[in-house]
């Protein structure tokens, strides 16, 4: 009986649990690990959201850019006999094109104002283009182009497609313009490091005006 009693005492000693101090240390260590996991998970999702926003912004810019160039390629004489290109400025372009593919040619204006790119359309009323009836809407937000970074660049028939070739100087003789290039800078609103703006470069020849240019 004495032997059994001692055996129970020994087993009891070996089965003793954590002390209060050990428990506190364990909880503290577990809390630190959990906070680290939460921070890591949050960073992963934040980075993914920023990347998704960047892709959305650049995708929208590409759609807008190619839309502008497609309309320019199809520029033609207005219903009132106006030359296909009416205004060729650094931050504004006005031309005539059948954008909605109806029976009349629209007067289309793209212009930059307050960091936003607008598209204004005037329909032919049967006798003239009444600019007071222009319907404008924003097609691109967060445009970073300034007076020192033209949104639209213009080239004559000597243009060979090089991004380093000098554009025509302002003021521009409209009859010299054969090719238009869009140089749109989009602000990095997603907050990704080391990137301030994203630049979209796309261009095309005005088919009804081109001479020795490609498409």
Q: What would your notes on this structure say?
A:
The chain has 215 residues and is of the alpha+beta class. The chain has one domain (47-205). The protein contains 2 helices and 8 strands, in the order H-H-E-E-E-E-E-E-E-E. It has helices at residues 2-14, 20-73, and strands at 85-88, 92-97, 106-113, 116-122, 135-140, 152-155, 179-187, 197-205. It has a 5-stranded antiparallel sheet with strand order 1-2-3-4-5, covered by helices on one side. A 3-stranded antiparallel sheet has the order 6-7-8, with helices on one face. It is elongated, with a radius of gyration of 33 Å. The mean pLDDT is 81.
Strand content: 15-25%
Radius of gyration computed on alpha carbons: 33 Å
Count of folded domains: 1
Instruction: Report the structural category.
Output: alpha+beta
Widest beta sheet: strand line-up: 1-2-3-4-5
Please write the string of helix (H) and strand (E) elements. Answer: HHEEEEEEEE
User: In DSSP terms, counting alpha (H) and pi (I) runs of 4 or more, how many helices?
Assistant: 2
Shape: elongated
- Cα-to-Cα separation, first versus last residue: 106 Å
Poorly predicted sequence stretches spanning 5 or more consecutive residues: none
- Main β-sheet: number of strands, strand sense, barrel status? 5 strands, antiparallel
Q: How many β-strands, per DSSP?
A: 8
> Which range best describes the helical content: under 10%, 10-25%, 25-40%, 40-55%, 55-70% or over 70%?
25-40%
Mean pLDDT: 81
Report a brief summary of the structure:
It is built from 2 helices and 8 strands, in the order H-H-E-E-E-E-E-E-E-E.
């Amino acid at each position: 009986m004495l032997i059994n009693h001692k055996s129970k005492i020994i087993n009891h000693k070996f089965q003793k649990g954590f002390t209060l101090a050990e428990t506190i240390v364990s909880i503290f260590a577990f809390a630190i690990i959990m906070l680290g996991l939460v921070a890591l998970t949050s960073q992963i999702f934040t980075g993914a959201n920023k990347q998704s926003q960047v892709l959305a912004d650049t995708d929208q810019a590409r759609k807008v850019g190619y839309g502008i160039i497609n309309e320019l390629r199809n520029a033609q004489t207005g219903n009132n006999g106006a030359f296909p290109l009416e205004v060729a400025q650094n931050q504004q372009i006005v031309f005539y094109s059948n954008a909605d593919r109806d029976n009349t040619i629209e007067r289309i204006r793209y212009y930059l104002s307050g960091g936003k790119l607008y598209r204004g359309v005037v329909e032919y009323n049967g006798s003239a283009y009444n600019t007071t009836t222009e319907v404008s809407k924003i097609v691109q937000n967060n445009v970073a182009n300034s007076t020192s970074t033209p949104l639209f660049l213009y080239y004559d028939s000597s243009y060979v497609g090089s991004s380093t070739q000098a554009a025509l100087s302002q003021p521009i003789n409209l009859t010299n313009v054969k090719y238009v290039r869009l140089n749109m800078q989009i602000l990095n609103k997603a907050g990704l490091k080391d990137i301030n703006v994203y630049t979209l470069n796309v261009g095309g020849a005005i088919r009804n005006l081109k001479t020795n240019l490609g498409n």
